[in-house]
Amino acid sequence: ARAYFHLAANVNVGDALGRPEEFVLDNLSATSGSIALMRRYWPTARPIFLSSDRVFGGRVGAVDEETEPLPLDPYGLSKALSEDLLLYFDRTEGARSILVRTVNLYGSFQKSNQFIPSMFKKFWLGMNLIKVGNLNLKRNYLHIDDLTSALLMLVEQIDIAPQILHLKGESMALGDIASTFAKIAWQMFKREVSIETDHGMSRPAGAELKEFRFEGDLAKKLFGWSPSRNFEDGLKMIFKEEGAARGSL
What we know:
- The protein is an alpha/beta fold.
- It has helices at residues 13-18, 20-41, 74-93, 115-124, 144-156, 174-189, 218-223, 231-245, and strands at residues 3-6, 46-52, 61-63, 98-102, 104-106, 129-132, 138-143, 164-167, 170-173, 194-197, 212-214.
């Protein structure tokens, strides 16, 4: 094998904030176990670890592949510690890990309580008044198909792959995402949906990300990769695929 993927992690916000010590140890243990498997069965493969922009949660301004992580929440901390574990493995055994840091991912059939999948979950339950957290925040989103294409390019050209790679998508205010969601819900299903802030659902102020800009263009320079799916089309695809699976289309 030329490459070994470690893509799994607990992303549950409630777990992260409710039991942070266990949450961090769970994700770190998964990375440690992944390394042990690779060392045993695929010792010559390059580890490809799916990390997150949340390793920069405490930064302000532009961050790129050269910026040192500064996590602010348990999820970001678990990813930063997992990166350190892999880099230690690189130094001691020459594993040549590839750390792929992505922004927020979205796509059909997500099973999480994060912003976009939680709206879809409530929509399919028949709710026309959907309560969410703070809509004034701004986030960067990448469709799962674009992540997949980047990972395939990475494997195809793994000999020139860098140690750290940033994949970014489209930056949007959560309020604009909510408005786009409601617009598509009406266009495709003729349902009027209102999406409102419930401050009780917002993260604690100390755990919210700072206003950093996730940068990095190595993926484009080395592999010619850039996102191909715009955000509105991505949301329409989720409505279409999930609606078809439920017999709603």
